[in-house]
Amino acid sequence: MGRRLCLVTGASAGIGAAFARVYAKQGFDLALAARRADRLEALGRSLAAEFGIEAVALPEDLSDPAAPERLIAALAARGRAVDVLVNNAGYGLRGDYADQDWAEQRAFLQVLVAAVAELSHRVLPGMVGRRYGRIVNVASLMGLMPAMPGHGLYSAAKAFVVKFSEGLHLETQGTGVHVTAVCPGLTRSEFHDAAALREAVEAAPAWMWMSAEAVAEAGYAAAEANRPIATPGSSNRAIAAFARLLPEEWGMALMARQARR
């Protein structure tokens, strides 16, 4: 049997690039998807040389509703099926919902919700048929907590990813397919720069931060163990547990106060 293939979206930097490295290290060929072709190609060349695998760059903008179908079709044209799907592509929008342009919100939902669901739907039947598959959905600690004003759509999208993953996890029991939602907290990456949040989050204490590499390693281990939810980092797990215990009204009040700060 040839090497299995791992498709990573949002692979050009941060957690996506870290997941690509983890799976390359495990001997998987890579399909790397993101908007920045130059970064994808450079990452693919580097990982192929280091680990002796094959890597293909598939530049796509997942805000285009036709992009998921194109990605899978491009791999099928190469005679490849997806054995591992890492749904990592995403970004943040800052500001009150009513103040933001709907076209931006629609594109956001396409990337963080619709593309996650469609790519999973397109690869899942083949995984079940081959009795092997991994779907790793990168959610967020915010998907496990009360929503914060100014970031409500992000929290809602990540909460969807968590519940979607839990449902698929239950549906695929005994099929050889593992589905896991990874819920990182503050992670060193370009995410906060793209969302214009760098200044705000830099005030967070050092113990709250994790590296993208540590998040990806934890996500890989959780997927192999067939755990439905993975919250990397002991501090993040403590925060998630505390959020579950809080009455909803208290949690919302806490998040509102945090947003004002």
Describe it:
By secondary structure, the protein is an alpha/beta fold. The chain has a single domain, classed as NAD(P)-binding Rossmann-like Domain (Rossmann fold, 3-Layer(aba) Sandwich), CATH 3.40.50.720. Helix content is 51%, strand content 15%. The protein has ten helices and nine strands. A seven-stranded parallel beta sheet has the order 3-2-1-4-5-6-9, sandwiched between helices. Strands 7-8 form a two-stranded parallel sheet. Strand 5 (133-138), helix 5 and strand 6 form a beta-alpha-beta unit. Helix 1 (14-25) runs parallel beside helix 2 (37-51) and helix 3 packs parallel to helix 4 (102-130). The longest helix has 29 residues, at 102-130. The chain is globular and about 55 Å long. The mean pLDDT is 89.
Helix-strand blueprint:
Layout: E1 5-9, H1 14-25, E2 29-34, H2 37-51, E3 55-59, H3 67-77, E4 84-87, H4 102-130, E5 133-138, H5 152-171, E6 177-182, E7 187-188, H6 191-194, H7 198-201, E8 210-211, H8 212-224, E9 229-230, H9 234-245, H10 248-260
Parallel strand pairs: 1-2, 1-4, 2-3, 4-5, 5-6, 6-9, 7-8
Helix pairs in contact: 1-2, 1-8, 3-4, 4-5
